[in-house]
Design goal:
Elements: H1 3-7, H2 13-35, H3 43-55, H4 61-77, H5 81-95, H6 102-116, H7 123-137
Helix pairs in contact: 2-3, 2-5, 2-6, 3-4, 3-5, 4-5, 5-6, 6-7
Amino acid sequence: MKNSEKKFRNPDLEVHRALALWAATCAERTLPLFEVNQPADNRPSLALQTLREWVRGERTMMECRAAAFAAHAAARQAVNLAAVAAARATGQAAAVAHMYTHARHAGEYAVKAACLAVPTTQAVATMEREKAWQWAQLREDLRLLAPIV
C-alpha cells in the first residue's frame, strides 16, 4: 500500500465516530449564530442530527454526505458572516462520516463563526478561548487526528 493511500484512510470505526461526535459538538456550539439569522432554515441542524444518527448506526455515510451538502447550501444562502461560518461548521461535521479529516475543518469553521460574532477588538480573545475549549473536548488519543491550529 502506498503512503498516500494510508494517509486518506478512515481510522477504525470507534475512533471515526469519536471524531464525528467531537466535530458535531464544536459545530453545535455555534449553531445558534445561524439559527438566529435564518430561523426558518433547519438544514444545518439536520446535518448534525444526521451525523449523530450515523454515529449510532442509524444512518448511512451517503445520508450524512447529502446532509453536509444541504448545510453548505444553507451557508451559501445566509448573509450574516457568522451564520455562514456556523453553517459551514455543521456541513464539515456531517462530512466526517465520509472522511474523518473533515473534523478539523468543523472546528476551524466554529472558531471562525465565534470570532465573526464578536466585535473585532474581542476576536483574538474569542479565538483563543474557542480553541482552548475545543482542545479540552477532544480526547487526548485523537489530538493528532484533529489538530487545532
